[in-house]
Design goal:
By secondary structure, this protein is an alpha/beta fold. It contains 13 helices and seven strands.
């Protein structure tokens, strides 16, 4: 299948490569001419055969909105736009309405997998009509992990990003629990080897998970996490999750507390937030702050060979 990919950063670039490895044709556009296959969105549209499918992988908010508006003018009836960024589900519904006026379809995809997705595959949470999702299944099959899991057609437009929003809210809570447990282990003189304690939990326990594997990996690199500041950003989806809980009158005490803990990390040095920062860096290549206060490169975590 042929696909246009807009945004060739950490996620978009690796996704394009995984699709090419699966035999698909990807025409990529990025503001960085060193990685871009074409020089403009117009050239991207011209290079693709109708009916086109164009995947948008740029930051949520104004960047995505401007890209969708540009595509609305460049594409033709029967074409499809896929938003694979971390957009708010309300924005999805607005973008779908805009494109529908031009006869252009819209699908939203919540994507998880971070810097490891090229090798392991990406978990995909999809929102859109049955017709549009079915048409894109060759792309989804190539991107998802092998096996029965890692893909779901969650519902209509907006459902994919809503599901990803909740996924990230759960992620906040899980990371916070690991972080607080690590801080408590560090605080006692009774436990002499905290990194090995975390490592021992990777098999045979009910709390084993990929996040725990990544925590172990971070501790092997930096046993005391002394290279990091106890400061953790929030991507915005944690806030949206809490707001959606308010809108639907659903109690989310754990996720809400985890979000507020990240806010607290910006006020005082927090040992637990060092672990949260380390985990975000491990799974997503998110920038961290070193003890010296300098930002590290965003994509400085490479999956092992």
């Amino acid at each position: 299948m042929e696909l246009g990919m807009i945004g060739l950063g950490r996620m978009g670039g690796n996704m394009a490569e995984r699709l090419r490895q699966a035999g698909h044709t990807v025409v990529g556009y990025d503001r960085d001419p060193k990685v871009s296959d074409v020089g403009s969105l117009q050239e991207l549209a011209d290079r693709l055969s109708a009916p086109r499918a164009v995947w948008v992988m740029v930051p949520a908010g104004e960047a995505t909105r401007a890209t969708v508006e540009s595509l609305a003018d460049l594409l033709e009836p029967g074409d499809l736009v896929i938003d694979g960024g971390n957009s708010h589900y309300i924005d999805d519904q607005e973008h779908a309405k805009l494109l529908d006026q031009k006869g252009i379809g819209f699908v939203d995809v919540g994507v998880s997998g971070g810097v490891w997705g090229l090798k392991n595959g990406y978990a995909l949470m999809v929102g859109g009509s049955d017709e549009h999702v079915k048409r894109l299944m060759p792309i989804f099959e190539a991107l998802k992990p092998e096996g029965d899991f890692g893909f779901v057609h969650s519902g209509e437009v907006g459902a994919g990003h809503f599901a990803k929003m909740v996924h990230n809210g759960i992620e906040y809570g899980m990371m916070q629990a690991y972080a607080e447990g690590w801080e408590l282990l560090e605080a006692t003189d009774l436990v002499k080897n905290v990194p090995e304690t975390f490592r021992s939990w990777r098999e045979g326990t009910v709390i084993r998970s990929w996040l725990l594997d990544l925590a172990d990996r971070a501790l092997q690199d930096d046993p005391d996490l002394h290279k990091l500041k106890g400061y953790a950003q929030d991507s915005g989806e944690g806030r949206w999750t809490v707001q959606a809980a308010v809108d639907h009158a659903v109690p989310l005490p754990v996720i809400t507390a985890a979000l507020f803990a990240r806010f607290a990390s910006r006020q005082d040095e927090s040992p637990a937030m060092k672990m949260v920062a380390a985990l975000r860096n491990q799974f997503g290549g998110h920038a961290v702050e070193t003890a010296k206060g300098a930002d590290s490169p965003g994509a400085d975590v490479t999956p092992p060979a």
